[in-house]
Design a protein that fits this description.
- With about 400 residues, the protein is mostly helical.
- The chain is built from 16 helices and no strands.
- The radius of gyration is 22 Å and the shape is globular.
- The two termini are about 35 Å apart.
């Protein structure tokens, strides 16, 4: 290739990179923001943020928010909202506490019953939204008040606990090392699992790019693809090493990761996932194309109730007690995580990975500011401004497109 040809291709190459960055600024910008926020608090806290103990606490503190954000992302993509998730979370935890602690039922069947209860609550709310066309804001606002009151009534205004140790391990247990059977020292099993997951992620990314190349659909420049995968591999391996050097992988992290993979697959590779995006993008067009939009809306709310129930069990297990104030304000953190992660307020736009990143942006900010001794009043103001900025950028780039 001559120097003239190379010189002629360089401007076009730069333009392709620039256009790719512009069209994907929300996705890459959010990931970059999380990295910068973590770097800032890592520096300001003198390295405390990424210490294994604090990193483990960060995972445990935000697990239930991440789990509910997966369901909320689907709700928002479908063009709705759910304000009741915090109250449903607290109510399900209260029911579990009464059944296990007061009435003496075994924790395992109670767990399945509470998951079914959460799904039933979501189904009832989804029924009114989908088939009676009552705005989701009104239905779930009513649900927020109803289930908050029910939690107070069931607990009689008092905290109920403690839970059996096996139930507690759902939220506070760790994966033991297969070599030693304990969770002390360096947990080799956890590190090897992290390395295997890293290899699988890179493998599927490479396979997806090759499939896109075969159909001429590759948009991401190779430099971005390489850099993104190196960043992912480095982050996963570092995280695995830090977790292994403390007690290993928390049980709740394994559950959370499995759900992230499942929902990422559903939204990107299954028909129902594509239909949810079509529903949020243009409900009338989706209905005319043969999609049963009412049933799809019903399913998204049922799914949200199921995940809120799971989050309620995890939160109660982590605190080792059910309190009347459990779940208070959770809906705000969950909704904020989705919007910060790139979900559009008008529906039809949003990604599972974005919701997870948004949840950890909020979590890292909460954790970092708490370590620095920032007052709760200032924390709330900062989180509100971050949420407003995220939605502003969404509207700005949407209008500019």
């Amino acid at each position: 290739m001559t120097q003239q040809t190379i010189a002629a291709e360089e401007p076009g190459h730069r333009r392709s990179i620039a256009s790719f960055v512009k069209s994907n600024i929300r996705e890459y910008g959010m990931l970059l923001s999380l990295i910068l926020i973590m770097a800032f608090f890592q520096y300001m806290t003198n390295g405390t943020l990424l210490k294994p103990l604090n990193l483990t606490n960060l995972i445990l503190q935000n697990s239930y928010i991440v789990i509910m954000a997966l369901g909320m992302m689907l709700i928002i993509v479908a063009g709705h909202i759910d304000l009741s998730v915090g109250s449903v979370c607290g109510f399900v935890g209260a029911v579990a506490a009464v059944l296990i602690v007061k009435l003496g039922y075994h924790w395992l069947p109670v767990t399945f019953f509470c998951l079914a209860l959460g799904a039933a609550i979501g189904a009832v709310q989804g029924y009114f939204v989908a088939f009676w066309k009552i705005p989701s804001f009104i239905v779930t606002l009513a649900g927020m008040l109803v289930f908050k009151g029910l939690a107070l009534w069931i607990l009689a205004g008092q905290s109920v606990g403690p839970f059996p140790v096996p139930f507690q391990r759902m939220a506070s247990g760790f994966l033991p090392d297969a070599a030693t059977g304990v969770i002390e020292a360096f947990n080799l099993t956890s590190f090897l699992i992290g390395a295997a997951v890293t290899a699988l992620v890179i493998y599927f990314n490479v396979r997806e790019r090759r499939a896109q190349q075969a159909h001429g659909l590759v948009e991401e420049p190779f430099a971005f693809f390489l850099g993104r995968n190196l960043l992912v591999a480095g982050g996963f391996l570092l995280f695995s090493y830090l977790m292994a050097s403390y007690k290993g992988l928390p049980n709740v992290l394994i559950v959370m990761f499995a759900l992230i993979v499942l929902y990422a697959f559903v939204t990107s590779s299954m028909t129902i996932g594509r239909r949810i995006y079509a529903l949020g993008g243009n409900e009338k067009a989706a209905r005319l194309s043969g999609i049963k939009t009412n049933r799809l809306t019903f399913y998204t709310f049922t799914n949200m109730g199921l995940l809120a129930g799971l989050a309620g069990l995890i939160f109660a297990a982590r605190l080792n007690t059910a309190t009347p104030k459990a779940g208070l304000g959770f809906e705000l953190d969950v909704i904020a995580a989705c919007f910060i992660g790139g979900a559009s307020a008008s529906g039809g736009v949003g990604k599972v990975v974005g919701a997870v990143i948004g949840a950890f942006v909020m979590g890292v900010m909460n954790n970092g500011m708490s370590i620095l001794g920032v007052g709760i009043d200032l924390q709330q103001m900062i989180k509100g401004l971050v949420l407003l900025a995220a939605v502003f950028l969404d509207v700005y780039y949407k209008n500019k497109a």
